[in-house]
Amino acid sequence: MDDMISWMQEGGQVGIFDATNSSRARRNMLMKMAEGKCKIIFLETICNDERIIERNIRLKVQQSPDYAEEPDFEAGMRDFKTRLANYEKVYEPVEEGSYIKMIDMASGHGGQLQVNNISGYLPGRIVFFLVNTHLTPRPILLTRHGESRDNVRGRIGGDTVLSSEAGQLYSKKLANFVEKRLKSERAASIWTSTLQRTILTARPIVGFPKIQWRALDEINAGVCDGMTYEEIKKNMPEEYESRKKDKLRYRYPRGESYLDVIQRLEPVIIELERQRAPVVVISHQAVLRALYAYFADRPLKEIPHIEVPLHTIIEIQMGVSGVQEKRYKLMD
């Protein structure tokens, strides 16, 4: 907790202090430690569904490093249930300070959210995020548009159509893949940007609703839109060097930086978290780097360098045990 508070004082915005804190005395101690330094919100999850509790205990014993050395699964189950019973003896419900209680929200059938003494922008965003998240397993498929004419010419930005061979071929291959992969998922949806290269990539996919998001448009290259990197290097050497030095924070003149893109993706991320059915996101390199980094939990500084090749699908499987990833290369 001391480490957490000093991190917050060094400029941290949201820290998650993961501990049981099941007694009033423990929580009061934490509030005293944080006084005048940072705001504390207690987050309590309450589950009354015996089946979910049993499933979670099994997952915990199977996957937790605490039981990696325990060959007898049933012995692990007994040990965990004993630990649980000991926690129950000292448990006192959260009734002090600022808190959010999530009650029976893991079942996917509604549940209840109780909020007490929450005010301010960031705490409000946290509540909004928690209302929209759930653990229903579902895949999110990320892919760039098929090769565009500007890709062929090495030009950035623009709003050109797909290249007549590779780009159009990928749109057909993607449609086949999606229809096979999601054939039993009638509630799935296809999300694209408002630029024609993503809309044309999605066109051959049938049977699913398509939604266009301006927030999924490629990073705005401002005055460099339509140029090649060679042209930027030659005509705007200072801009070229600034970008090379810090791709994350560099902002194109009259355009955007990666940090701007991350900012505008917030509503898309909240909506992706809210979805219970699969979503196929057809977008652009910078945008997909940021989305992928969010779900794969990659550090901010890595975002501009994450590999998101053309004609490849990144499938992210969201579920109880975290995030799994598969990549499908449909074309060279």
Describe this entry's structure for a reader:
There is one protein chain. The protein starts with a helix and ends with a strand. It has two domains: 1-132, P-loop containing nucleotide triphosphate hydrolases (Rossmann fold, 3-Layer(aba) Sandwich); 139-329, Phosphoglycerate mutase-like (Rossmann fold, 3-Layer(aba) Sandwich). By secondary structure, the protein is α/β, with parallel strands linked by helices. Helix 3 crosses helix 4 (73-90) and helix 9 (229-235) crosses helix 10 (237-245). It has helices spanning 2-9, 24-34, 50-63, 73-90, 121-132, 149-153, 166-181, 196-202, 229-235, 237-245, 258-264, 266-274, 285-296; strands at residues 41-46, 98-103, 112-116, 138-144, 189-192, 210-212, 279-283, 312-319, 322-329. The strands form two sheets. The protein has a six-stranded mixed β-sheet with strand order 6-5-7-4-8-9, with helices on both faces. It has a three-stranded mixed β-sheet with strand order 1-2-3, covered by helices on one side. The protein contains 13 helices and nine strands.
Layout of helices and strands, plus pairs?
Elements: H1 2-9, H2 24-34, E1 41-46, H3 50-63, H4 73-90, E2 98-103, E3 112-116, H5 121-132, E4 138-144, H6 149-153, H7 166-181, E5 189-192, H8 196-202, E6 210-212, H9 229-235, H10 237-245, H11 258-264, H12 266-274, E7 279-283, H13 285-296, E8 312-319, E9 322-329
Parallel strand pairs: 1-2, 4-7, 5-6, 5-7
Antiparallel strand pairs: 2-3, 4-8, 8-9
